[in-house]
Every structure is written in C-alpha cells, then in structure tokens.
Amino acid sequence: MARPADTPRHIVAVAVTDGAPIFELAVPCEVFGIDRADIVDPWYELRLCAAEPGPLRTSAGLGIPTPYGLDNLVEADTVVVAACPRAVQLAPPPELVTAVRKAHELGRRIVSICSGAYVLAAAGLLSDRRATTHWMNAADFAFRFPEVDLDPTALYVEDGSILTSAGTGAAIDLCLHLVRQDHGAAVANEVARRMVVPPHREGGQTQYAKLPVRPRTGGGEGLAPVLQWARERLHEPLTVAGLAAVAHMSERTFARRFRDALGTTPLQWILQERVRLAQELLETTDEPVESVARRTGFGTAPNLRHHFRRLTSVSPQTYRQVFRSRSMPPGALRESTMGVTAGT
After folding, report:
1. Is 248 exposed, middle or buried (0-12, 13-18, 19+ CB in 10 A)?
2. What digits encode the pLDDT tens for the residues 125-151?
C-alpha cells in the first residue's frame, strides 16, 4: 500500500504526565510508534509531548523521554491524552487543558485513553457529548462531570472528532479503530495480527466489570441474611414472596426496602446474581452451557444466553473464550471492587 513519496506523515502526539500508567502509555507507542511502512507508506509519526515539567516517569518508575512539548501537541493531526494518575485527574495541568482545547478548536482529532477523559472533560470538550472511561472511574467521573453523557459500558466511544476509551486493553481497541478509520480494515487487521490481538472485540466493558453488589445506601445490612439465603439457592425458583417470607416482611415492604437499600428490584438482583454465578462457572469449570444454565437457575441454555448477553453484551461462549485461560479462585467474581484507579 505504498503512497506517493511526498505524502506527509500523520502525526500522533501523546500528552504524557508524570506517573502515567505504563500499559496505557505503551499502547499508542506500539500502534503508532513502530514504523510499519511495509504495510502503509508513510506510517504514522509518534511524538511524546511533556504535559508538565520533567523529568517524567511512568507509574512503574520508568523514565519517559519527551522531546516534544505542548506546542507540538497542538500541531499534531491526532492528539492522545493517555491515562493519568489521580492527582492529574483531580487537577489537570492548566497548560495541558488549554492545549487540548486549542487543538480541538483547530480541528484536530482528540483521543483519550482511560482516565485521560478527565482532562478532556476539564477542557470542556465532552460537555453534552457521549463518552466513556474505565468502569471503576465511572461513578466518580459522572459525579464530577454531570454534563457528560457517560456510557460506562462501552470499550470506546466516538462522538465526532472526539474519541474516548475504557481502561487498559480498551486502549488497543481504540488505537486499532483509529488505524481502521485512517487506512481501512485490512491494515488494522494486519497490525492486530502482528500484535497478536483481535482486530475487534465483541461487546463492551460489562463483560469485564464486576456487577454492583454493595448497597447503594445505608440500611442494606439488615437484608444480608436473606441475600445470602438467596445466593445459596440460585438454582431454585426464587420469588419476591419467598424472599419476603424469609425476611419476615410483607411483599410490599420488602420490595420497597430492597430498592431503597440496593437501588434495584429483587428480581433484577436475582438475575444479576445468576449471571455472576454463570460467569464464575464459565471461568472456572468445563461444564457445558446447558449445565451452567441449570446450576444458575436459568433452566435452559437459550434462557441463559438471552439474559447473559443482555447483561454483559457477549454470549456465554465468547465470555468463556476470553477468560477460560485465566486461573481464578471460586467466588472471586463475587467480591465487590470499590474505589477509583487511574489505569487498571
């Protein structure tokens, strides 16, 4: 796919902050920084731009050479704001915010990876736009930037010339999407083959995120015995009336207290718990889908597939293919993850 010799390189500038998570920073370097002129000539030109005074290091302590500055960032064709540490999320360098805003005004393509979305939001670029970030940051991000139409389920979101991604592996998805956008599917597929990754992943973050299990407000502690009782009987028929009887409440009172404490209905909670158990069985056993369906209370494989895809956006088979090679102790998926990270 040779191009005329005078074709200018597409410049991808990455804004680098001190303490940046190493993987999210490495992905654009891998995709755009390695000369792949044998696929497309010319390939991209990558520029690492210091977003704050140096020396800059990754979260692992590795030094990052940044021969370019924010003026170079503004001049690039594509501006990438990589994931950033919590301090930068809370107070992005004003010079970086100004540079990103100016680049947008000049018509540059603006991209954020994981928590880099905080910088774009601080620059006002995500107001009334659809965007995403790492699912562990979603609640915090939504609280800080209510004007953003946040989609915490997407691997990446494209809204005009602004693109945002979820964390870690989603950086690969987004960068390959940019290559596909610039050079077509065949080129993006070849880059993916060389990286030994899928050119496009099915589904969204929900197949990796842990479903919410902790009470939304205080007062959920009183429901703990009935919740545990239900978890031990997910393979059996469960009804609101049955749960209310175990809790020694009327159905109406139980349903109201349940929603107040957990922010969902009893039947929706049961569905989530059954899907969570199905995730665990798909990861840690070789049981066929039919057996998983029976053990989780879905009864039949089609019923399991329907609800599993609706809650996780992928099929049970796809989920098992993604996670089966990983060794995970039983019950690990039931642990709730709390807190906010920069780039998990």
Report:
1. exposed
2. 999 999 999 988 888 999 999 999 999
